[in-house]
Design goal:
The protein is mainly alpha-helical and about 180 residues long. It has a domain at about 55-185. It has helices spanning about 5-25, 35-40, 45-50, 55-75, 85-95, 100, 110-120, 120-130, 135-160, 165-185. Helix 1 packs across helix 2 (about 35-40) and helix 5 (about 85-95) runs antiparallel to helix 10. The longest helix has 24 residues, at about 135-160. It is elongated, with a radius of gyration of 19 Å. The N and C termini lie far apart (about 45 Å). The relative contact order is 0.10.
Length: about 180
């Protein structure tokens, strides 16, 4: 997170908390600046110092979360050494305060797909290594299947309140994706 004045961080956190409460009740498309400001107990002019509208606010929050994930990803080495599923889940769990923004039915985000797509080329190379006879189109299908399946499992886990352990969800994702890779001729 950027080094910001403590008052600025406090104000932005109040605005973010207000937005998250509103997303319990309605979609991001229905949230107004006035709604957010009323919930945060700040003036509209204060909101406009940081954001142009609720969508801009959401995009800035997503961008910050994305940067945090990418920073973790880039700390890793080769694809095989890159973050295991459990590390992704741990980061998601640590950022669970934003889960309504990322996963909620009233949220508006494809951040998980963006994050998983970062590794798509490397993942496709791994598929090609495991199954050298596959053509490029089949590799893309398998990659998309694994990516969107992973997003679906993580979304269900988050929307269910993160009740299952990180280890359980990681094992399930790894097993299902591993089976997808191994069962294809």
């Amino acid at each position: 997170m950027n080094k910001e004045d403590r008052r600025v961080r406090k104000t932005k956190n109040a605005l973010i908390n207000s937005l998250m409460k509103l997303l319990d009740e309605k979609s991001i498309k229905s949230v107004t600046v006035t709604d957010i400001c009323d919930g945060a107990d700040v003036n509209r002019s204060t909101f406009y110092q940081y954001y142009s509208n609720p969508f801009d606010m959401l995009e800035q929050i997503e961008a910050e979360i994305y940067r945090d994930f990418v920073n973790e990803w880039e700390k890793q080495g080769s694809y095989e050494e890159k973050m295991p599923v459990s590390t992704w889940l741990e980061l998601i769990y640590l950022n669970r305060g934003y889960s309504k923004l990322i996963f909620g039915e009233n949220g508006y985000s494809d951040i998980l797909i963006q994050l998983l797509s970062r590794s798509d080329h490397e993942f496709q190379e791994q598929i090609k290594t495991l199954n050298p006879k596959l053509d490029h189109k089949d590799i893309e299908y398998i990659s998309d299947y694994c990516t969107y399946g992973t997003v679906a499992i993580i979304t269900k886990w988050a929307n269910g309140g993160f009740k299952e352990s990180i280890e359980h969800i990681a094992e399930m994702i790894s097993m299902l994706n591993g089976n997808a890779l191994r069962t294809f001729p």
